[in-house]
Amino acid sequence: MTDARFWQEQLLLRRYRFPAAGEPEKSFAVRIGHAGIGYFFPLGTGELEAAARMACQIYCTIVKQGWEAAGKLFPRELIVSFEWSANPILWTYTTVHTLVVRLADIATTPVRVRADLQRVLIVETDAGLRRALEWCINCQPGFCAIACESPETFASTAATHKPRLVLLNRSLAERMGIEFSGGLTPLKSGVLALAYSVSVDGDHMFVSTPGGAEGYMLKRVNPTSLLDQMLPPGNISGTDAEAHLAPAKLFFKGLLRPRSGQHVAALAKLTPRENEVLLLLSKGCVDKEIASAMGISVWTVHGHVKKIFERLSVWTRTEAVIRYLEK
Q1: Is 114 helix (H, G, I), strand (E, B) or coil?
Q2: Which structural domains are found in the chain, ordered by start?
Q3: DSSP secondary-structure letter at 313?
Q4: Is 33 exposed, middle or buried (0-12, 13-18, 19+ CB in 10 A)?
Q5: What is the pTM of this model?
Q6: Are the beta carbons of 146 and 154 closer than 8 angstroms?
Q7: Considering Cα of 119, then 219, then 304, then 211, what sign does the dihedral take?
Q8: Distance CA 83, CA 318 (A)
Q9: What averages of pLDDT result for each successive group of 10 residues across the chain (327 residues)?
């Protein structure tokens, strides 16, 4: 795995770009796993040999210096999901690349905090992810981002900047004594907070959604329009969470349009076994659990999933499950 030729076989052309990273339209990425941890890394080039050399460099850095060091040197591809409602589950999500030191100036160009801009405080300990989210928010008309590097500095940062909205990594909420039941949550400081979850890929995102909800709707959005239509600028005041969720609910309601004849025909082509696999995937089962439930091998499960992708013209398990649940 220290030979660049090995990594040529692992390269993927990425479907979604993160504009802040300044990568070419078609560029490679690679999934690298080590010591039970794995991430997708965008490689910043569409040239095969150069991408393979970069993948090899990243892997060697992980092995020799550890994940923390690699995370500071190389951008990772992450999916960030914004939790608008818990039941039904209504999430928007987008793909970002962490902005490491060599890319930091892209996201940290000073933004003038004018009185007419609504301030969004981002509580995130991962510097690369925090910079990426800052860039996303600063792309939103009417909003500007304020960085908060740790739960311990939240109170002082909020008191200084008086944000209208707090974006909070769900994994940090417990440290801050904040309990999210889903959707916008009023804080003691008199500001609304919205939790977001971070996943390494779409499959992990879907599996991590809470169980038991009456319905699920996950919608991909462009990283330059995270809050568009969901929280129109000028409307965030007070802590009436339900009132502020009205635009978000209208947004999701608008997505419930009749299915196209093409999608219906594609679903009709699924075999009974493929339907069974999709049903188990929709319940959050992993491949080993599906294989056990159906009495087949994991490799046979992989074969069914590949056929499902082809029939439904999708790229990920998350897209396949969403298509299945919409029927």
Answers
A1: coil
A2: 4-73 (no CATH), 77-255 (3.40.50), 261-325 (1.10.10.10)
A3: T
A4: exposed
A5: 0.76
A6: no
A7: positive
A8: 16
A9: 85 85 87 94 93 95 95 94 87 93 53 72 96 93 91 92 91 86 80 92 81 77 84 58 72 67 78 90 83 91 90 80 71
